[in-house]
Design a protein that fits this description.
Distance between the termini: 57 Å
CATH topology: Ammonium transporter fold
Radius of gyration: 20 Å
Number of domains: 1
Oligomer: single chain
CATH class: Mainly Alpha
Strand order of the largest sheet: 1-2
Order of helices and strands: HHEEEEHHHHHHHHHHHH
CATH architecture: Orthogonal Bundle
Length: 404
């Protein structure tokens, strides 16, 4: 069986795994630039901790729950507990690459998803509570969703498409972030005092790392070094550029063009193309990314109008961008790219399947996150004390300063 492995495909997915890993510190830098200077070390650290927690969880049982033998279409079995049976021969879902590599590629997806979720807890989460919540959330929210979509679960059987994680990664983290923000509550002074980003260049560097890593995220999901991977890379970049320009123009209309708006728009375009990257062409990517920039900017304004302190806009960008991307896949999927067609080609069933899958994912992630957050809050408290929040989590929780 080892002889069936493709060395070119293996090298490509090894590189893509490293690219996606880089997205997690990219999230940390993006978020770190958006918070105040007294919590920047804490904010970046949450992404690294998310990577560590998800890595251990994935090896012990997360991969098995996601990709083990299907149980009722809902979750995987314990076939791969502790990576038992996950070796150097071909993976069940991709026989051209080693099973261990497929596991590692999926691991970095799980890790960056948990890192995105830290948006909701910026500047006020207890470190111990985050570790416990992160372990529970990855196990009970991310792993079942990954199985539903990629592990042979009920969404896969429904026929819904998600090439690289619009549902599994972005809808789950975005709507979970909103749920968690509603449970944990607003930061002290939110809505009363101005809370401004302390380091815009840091956030822009984080955006650059995310854009770079996203090529591995989407093109790597072809699981081969082939034309489909090339298409995914091109439409990923195209959608990101369209999203950046759309948000930039929208913010310009309302005042001055915003560099952070441009960065957020690029991420919105990246999010929206993620489920569609293996199914649409470049002109469609312009539409998908451009509308993502406008939709996500509108979602941010809506959040601010409602007074929700979902601090760093994972819901507006990842949640709403992922939702639009899931629906857009059912609209623009082209037979010229893959064997699937969308609404534009008369396939109403595909669009309906996308709606059902997205709606179920939104509901499951949102409700389960509220339940888990309330459990952790009741057991050990989610928030730091008012004094610690006032001093800043860098000193209060880590005993460190970002700037001397």
């Amino acid at each position: 069986m080892i002889m069936t492995l493709d060395s070119g495909d293996t090298a490509w997915i090894l590189a893509c795994t490293a690219l996606v890993m880089l997205m997690t510190p990219g999230v940390g830098l993006f978020y770190g630039g958006l918070v105040r200077s007294k919590t920047v070390v804490s904010m970046i650290s949450l992404s690294f901790i998310a990577f560590a927690v998800a890595s251990i969880q994935w090896v012990l049982f997360g991969y098995s729950l996601s990709f083990g033998t299907d149980i009722g279409g809902l979750v995987g079995g314990l076939d791969y507990l502790g990576l038992r049976g996950v070796g150097m021969d071909g993976a069940p879902f991709a026989g051209n690459i080693p099973h261990l590599l497929y596991m590692a590629f999926q691991l970095v997806f799980a890790a960056v998803t948990l890192a995105i979720l830290t948006s909701a807890m910026a500047e006020r989460i207890k470190l111990s509570s985050f570790i416990v919540f992160g372990l529970l959330w990855t196990t009970l929210v991310y792993d079942p969703l990954a199985h539903w979509v990629w592990g042979g679960g009920w969404i896969a059987r429904l026929g819904a498409l998600d090439f690289a994680g619009g549902t599994v990664v972005h809808i789950s983290s975005g709507f979970s972030a909103l749920a968690l923000a509603l449970v944990i509550g607003k930061r002290i002074g939110f809505g009363e005092n101005t809370i401004e980003p302390h380091n815009v260049p840091m956030a822009l560097i984080g955006t650059g790392l995310l854009w770079f890593g996203w090529f591995g995220f989407n093109a790597g999901s072809a699981l081969a070094a082939d034309g489909l991977a090339a298409n995914a890379l091109v439409v990923t970049n195209t959608s990101a550029a369209a999203g950046a320009l759309a948000w930039l123009i929208a913010s310009w209309i309302k005042g001055k063009p915003s560099s952070l708006g441009m960065a957020s728009g690029a991420i919105a375009g990246l999010v929206a193309i993620t489920p569609a990257a293996g199914y649409v062409d470049a002109p469609s990517a312009i539409v998908i990314g451009g509308l993502a920039g406008v939709i996500c900017y509108g979602a941010l304004l809506f959040r601010l109008g409602r007074g929700w302190d979902e601090s760093l806009d994972a819901w507006a960008v990842h949640g709403m961008g992922g939702l639009w991307g899931a629906l857009a896949t059912g609209i623009f999927a082209s037979p010229l790219i893959n064997d699937y067609t969308g609404l534009l080609y008369g396939n109403y069933n595909q669009f309906i399947a996308q709606i059902l899958a997205a709606a179920a994912s939104v509901a499951y992630a949102f409700v389960m996150t509220i339940v888990l957050a309330k459990i952790v809050d009741s057991a050990m408290g989610l928030r730091v004390s008012e004094e610690e929040e006032y001093v800043g989590l860098d000193i209060a929780q880590l005993g460190e300063r970002a700037y001397a």
